[in-house]
Automatic annotation (TrEMBL):
It holds the Pfam family ADH_N. This is Putative PIG3 family NAD(P)H quinone oxidoreductase. GO terms for molecular function: NADPH binding; oxidoreductase activity, acting on NAD(P)H; zinc ion binding. Keywords: NADP, Oxidoreductase.
Length: 325
């Protein structure tokens, strides 16, 4: 198979296409002929040598893909050669073939084409598991997602809005914030020249928001806690603003607040499979009805992985970047 590998830790220039042995479908696994792979920020960290794949996972980058079933291993039920699917991966997506635990394979929602389906697994599984399964966002509650124009943000805005929450989001340009509003965000805040704590305090009459999905980590920790409503839940999924910060425990106690931090990639296959099943049950019908849409910034061939990484690093994209085989 062809796969994108990093020859050494470094910038996008270390990425190159190599010939590697085809993966085989082990017990409980399926091999996909990959149509497209989605880029994730974790791929940038992996390329730089800061985020090795979990034990047993492929060294090849790529945490999600879409494709056609090419082989079915022992003990797999419900999938046949030729079926089209998308998949949540621990690695290996930037390749023409990948082996996937069958539980992490999902059917493609009606109305979504094979390539575009690669934009869905990471954002749908991350947002659904964190915002709904873990933080339990309820209709009528207030929800803040930072970085609303990113891959995660565009899915979070649509899902939360569709399921009846009031949605606040932050973003870096007026153009991106306008796009967030079009996706369903009720209140948009430019993080470059506005203080989200003040804006939310004003809009909510001092109440704050019930759930926050945070990509910034350390940089926003204190301000996120300040923005939580009583019994609010802060879910941290990213470290774009660093990993170490001071926390005023008293501020959290007074709100009876919760801080949760998770990563999808390192979870055991059984947990990821349960999340995929829940996404297929709850999110796919909304996608099939066109109420929640995959937002794709653009697609590039696998051979242009360097340019795709450079684009994600520039932050000029909105939604997902895909690599096609
Ligand atoms: N823990 C997990 O399981 C998990 C899974 C998937 C993703 N993630 C994390 O989730 C985050 C988002 O991923 P993604 O795929 O959506 O990446 P992405 O498409 O590159 O989006 C990154 C977002 O960060 C925003 N941002 C940059 N600086 C900001 C600031 N100062 N304040 C608020 N937002 C800011 C950007 O906003 P502008 O473009 O408007 O500047 C952009 O929307 C990443 O940190 C990623 O590692 C975690």
């Amino acid at each position: 198979m062809r796969a994108v590998i990093a020859t050494e830790p470094g910038g996008p220039e270390v990425l190159t296409v190599a010939e590697l042995p085809d993966p085989e479908a082990g017990p409980g696994e399926v091999v996909l002929d990959v149509a497209a792979a989605g880029l994730n920020r974790a791929d940038l960290l992996q390329r730089m040598g800061f985020y090795p794949p979990p034990p047993g996972a492929s060294d090849v980058m790529g945490m999600e893909c879409s494709g056609t079933v090419a082989a079915v291993g022992p003990d797999v039920e419900g999938w046949s050669v030729g079926d089209r699917a998308c998949a949540l991966l621990a690695g290996g997506g930037y390749a023409t073939k990948v082996a996937v635990p069958a539980g992490q394979l999902m059917p493609i929602p009606d109305g979504v084409d094979l390539v575009t389906a690669a934009a869905l697994p990471e954002v749908a599984c991350t947002v659904w598991s964190n915002v709904f399964m873990v933080a339990g966002l309820q209709p009528g509650e207030a929800f803040l997602v930072h970085g609303g124009a990113g891959g995660i943000g565009t899915m979070a805005i649509q899902l939360a809005s569709e399921l009846g929450a009031k949605v606040f989001t932050t973003g870096g340009t007026a153009e991106k914030l306008a796009a967030c509003a079009a996706l369903g965000a009720d209140v948009t805040i430019n993080y470059r020249d506005e203080d989200f704590v003040e804006v939310i305090r004003e809009v909510t009459d001092g109440r704050g928001v019930d759930v926050i999905l945070d990509n910034m980590g350390a940089k926003y920790l204190g301000r996120n806690v300040d923005t939580l409503a009583t019994e609010g839940r802060l879910v941290i999924i990213g470290m774009q603003g660093g990993t170490r910060a001071e926390l005023d425990i008293n501020a959290l106690l007074r709100k009876r607040g919760a801080i949760i931090a998770t990563t999808l990639r390192s979870r055991p296959t059984a947990e990821k499979s349960a999340i995929c099943a829940s996404v297929v049950e709850h999110v796919w019908p909304l996608v099939a009805e066109g109420l929640v849409q995959p937002i794709v910034h653009g697609t590039m061939p696998l051979a242009e992985a360097r340019a795709a990484h450079a684009l994600m690093e520039s932050g000029d994209h909105m939604g997902k970047i895909l690599l096609t085989t």
